[in-house]
Amino acid sequence: KRRSQTTWWTDYERVRRGMSTPTLRGYVPLQLAEGGSESEDEELRQPRGMDRIKHFFTTARDFESVHANHRYTREERRRLRQIPSIDYLPPNSEVYREWIKTQPHNKTWDKWLVMFVVGLVTGIVGWALYNIIGGMAAFKYTTVRYLLGHRLRFVAWLFNSTFSGLLVLMAALPVVFLAPAAAGSGVPEVMAYLNGCMMPKIFEMKTLLVKFFSCAFAVASGLPAGPEGPMIHMGACIGAALSRGESSTRDCGGGMCRRFGNNQDKRDFVTAGAAAGVAVAFRAPIGGLLFAFEEVASFWQQHVGWMIFFACMAGVLAIDLLNSAQRAFGEGHFGLFESEWSVAFEVKQSIEAHLAAVIPTVIIGLLCGSLGIMFTFANLHIARFRDANIKVKKWKVLEPILLILLYVTSTMILPIFFPCLQTGCTVDEVTGKPTCPPGAKVQRVVEDSGDLYTCQASGLYRYHAVPADKGGGGNNTIITYNEMATLVYPTGEDTIRLLFTRGTHRQFSYGSLIVMLMFYFAGACWIAGSAISSGLFVPMLLIGACVGRIVGLATVDFAASKGWGSPGAPPGVYLPGSAWQWMDPGVMALVGAGSFMGGVTRLTISLAVIMMEMSGDIHFLLPILLGILVAKWIGDSATHSLYHGLLEVKCVPFLPNEPSFPVSLDLFEVKQTMQTPVATLRMVETPNAIKEVLMNYPHSGYPIVHSTPAGAIFRGFILRDHLKVILQHYTDPQSDRFETSLSKLSYSMLTAKAKKGVRLSAISPYPSDQANGTDSEMQIDLSPYMDTSAITVQETFSVRRAYILFKTMALRHMVVIDDRNHVVGIMTRNDLLGYRLEDKLIR
Question: For residues 281 and 236, is the Cβ–Cβ distance under 8 A?
Fold first, then answer.
């Protein structure tokens, strides 16, 4: 390390003094820029052979505080450098300003219109997705219930396994063979793109279609997965496509397409699409906006925030209108937004919060934070294991099929170990009051709606207790059900609704809740990241709801041990009207669902609002906030958030909002972290000199300098893709050799050709002027195409402030100059990653 640092400073001082060096036109050599030692790299190197199994159960690099920088292996560092960055703002060149003059100024109605269409289409796609999932899942579970009700357990298992296996096969095949970018939830990839990383093929139309059908088949199969994560990705795809009238493979060529054909507008629409995806998935327009602000958006403007909120409103309006129209064909009324359809996980009974609820809330936060650490750690380890061992396509297809077969078999076996329970009491979901047969002792109360899996030979029924005063003349019906079957057989969404139900204090016991927690926890960890499109929001909600219900049940048992409770109610249970009614496992389940999500994703503000909007419960907002914060603090102490950890596994150079460093980065100057020397170009260069630089120094951009008696001073910056287009344009054999007019290469033509890409090998070398023995007359003026507003900083600039500037402005390059405006270095995304800062400033 000491030797590398000495060489680095020697090269830097040579550049400062204008001395010649063999790397004068290139960035600092890789081994000097990376830092670190061979022994350190050996510690980070991935194991091979049987050691992989042992390595799977070790902590490795995934148990690290949120304040610790992730350490990458040599191979992972190579993969980090392969992902290019993108600017948010377009280059402010002369040709760009000429193009801007032709565009309407302060014209925003068309952008508002596109935002509305993005939200509208996202809502339509969400409605179609949920209806397809609901239809296939209803057919599957209705058939399974019928077979179980006739004691055809083996036939039920055979049908369930075959049907679910076929659905998973149809979900995996297109992902593996058509669009690998559609695998998983897609949320980390969207976050990476909006952070400034170019992620290939994630917004193609093919990816969107495969994502849609793969998600529908995967969720309908019964896997522990949900559609909410894929909805965020699909919304981002819709935003990317509609903003420019295209995907990456199709172009509309219209005027609006050209107007929004830049990275700035595309990222705005992708952000709106992702926010609309959250809004549609949870029926939470405010939560969608806050999710975009808190988690995915790196560059935020107030007026863009208004447009994003408008897109979220349009998305929720679209899905609610379609649901209303769907209900109108039956007994509904078109235009009526029924809460059953407009609230994702509606809690019908409102219960007031109490100061004493802080104690179980903190306990839930501690448990969910700890489980969130384990969940994140397991997901990251499985992702690394899968990346290292499952590389053949056929195994990628077989993996989720084997998982669904194991999962279905487990769901059929687990209820056998739980006895049948009997009760005659049901609870009214609105009033919260139980109804029991006359003279019966209230012990166990179940919900009045929903399906309970019974042990009777007659099969599965939903019993209704009719109050005597309603003309029922008494109700002697005894409900027999298996609590484990009731939890594992329905879809994940239906199970969450069961767990959120209030007034059913002892419907589920500790044993069934703990087994369901462990079973779903393991299944969700393994299925995440496999070759299907699936999300983790539903599994996280369900796992957290189980934890919350366990704590809530313990609270009821504690009250029962003290002899507390309402008269006429089971021991430890308080009926509506009591100040202690909050001691309800259903209430604590809602707190646990938010807490576990907070412990895994580390969301706070947006998550609390999403929980409030998706449940319709505003009274318990403060306990939900407290549980989320406690779980987040516990999770931050041991692991990075799940999505940030997955980006580290995928080797994406993601820049967090704040750099992690043991001391203030204001103590260091950018000259200690920049890359130097830098390949530069003059304002007027020969074609052959430009091509030589492009071939020898394959960087993404180059500073433009102007020669003066005092030295070469910085004048602007030009992108590599633009430079190749310019070079091809002026070396075209059919073009006039001496014609360099601005009209021949406009900004729109420059960006269009740069987007399509120009192969450097396809550019013919420009012949020299043999008569004069020089090529001085064959020169290209680069000044019209260089960015004259490129951000520069002095070499004495603070590293912390440089990081903030780079992140806030969503930059791709930052040129470092000295007090004489000479280019002495350059800063890129990779130079500001935490491990690179540690290598250069500490190690």
Answer: no
Q: 610: helix, coil or strand?
A: helix
Separation between Cα atoms, residue 638 and residue 316, nearest integer Å: 37
Strand positions, DSSP E, 178-231: none
DSSP letter, residue 704:
E
What's the pLDDT score for residue 619? 87
> Is the CB of residue 719 less than 8 Å from the CB of residue 91?
yes
Average pLDDT, stretch 587-595? 96
pTM: 0.86
Output 98-107 pairs: Cβ under 8 A, ≥24 positions apart: 98/742, 98/746, 98/747, 99/746, 99/747, 99/748, 103/259
Q: How far apart are CA 591 and CA 94, in angstroms?
A: 56
The C-alpha atoms of residue 71 and residue 37 are separated, in whole angstroms, by 13
How far apart CA 462 and CA 47 sit, in angstroms, is 54
pLDDT at 623: 94
Please name the residue that has the structure tokens 């009207």: 577
Cβ(819)–Cβ(650) under 8 Å? no
Q: Measured on CA atoms in the order 123, 129, 131, 137, is the torsion positive or negative?
A: negative
The encoded tokens of residue 69 equal: 């920088």
Structure-token pair, residue 671: 């000259």
Instruction: Name the more confident of 718 and 27.
Output: 718
Beta bridge partners of 718: 702
C-alpha of 92 from chain center: 31
pLDDT of residue 426: 79
Rounded to an integer, what distance in angstroms lies between the CA atom of residue 811 and that of residue 829?
Answer: 8
| SS3 labels along 403-436 | HHHHHHHHHHHHHHHCCCEEECEEECCCCCCEEC
The residue to which tokens 């935020």 are assigned:
300
Find where tokens 């767990």 sit: 499
- Beta bridge partner(s), residue 702: 718
Q: What is the CA radius of gyration of the chain?
A: 31
d(CA 519, CA 155): 23
The span from the CA of 372 to the CA of 817, in Å, is 45
Q: Which two tokens stand for residue 482?
A: 């298996």
- Tally Cβ neighbours within 10 Å of residue 550: 22
Q: What is the Cα–Cα distance from 559 to 564, expressed in whole angstroms?
A: 5
- Residues 608, 611, 615: CA angle, nearest 5 degrees: 150
CA distance 595 to 603: 10
- Which of helix, strand or coil describes residue 204? coil
> In 3D, which of 71, 74, 2 has the Cα closest to residue 45?
74
% of the chain with per-residue pLDDT over 90: 52
State the Cα–Cα distance between residues 341 and 323, nearest whole angstrom. Answer: 7
The pLDDT score that the predictor gives to residue 727 is: 87
Residue 587 CB-density burial (10 A; 0-12 exposed, 13-18 middle, 19+ buried): buried
Task: Give the whole-angstrom CA distance, residue 260 versus residue 481.
Answer: 58
How are beta strands 813-817 and 792-794 bridged, if at all?
parallel
* 336 vs 729 pLDDT, higher one: 729
Pick from 26-40, 609-623, 763-777 the range whose average pLDDT is largest: 609-623
pLDDT at 9: 33
Ordered strands of the 681-682 beta sheet: 681-682, 701-708, 711-719
Report whether pLDDT(218) > 70. Answer: yes
Q: What is the pLDDT of residue 516?
A: 95
Decide which of 480 and 542 is more confident: 542
Between the two ends of the chain, the Cα-to-Cα distance in Å is 7
DSSP structure class, residue 294: I
Find, among 175, 275, 177, the residue nearest to 215 by Cα.
175
CA angle 104, 105, 110 (to 5 degrees): 65
Task: For the chain, count helices (H), then strands (E).
Answer: 31, 13
- Which residue type sits at 781? D
Q: What is the mean pLDDT of the chain?
A: 83
CA neighbor of 525 nearest in space, from 373, 633, 629: 373
The residue assigned the tokens 């994560």 is: 229
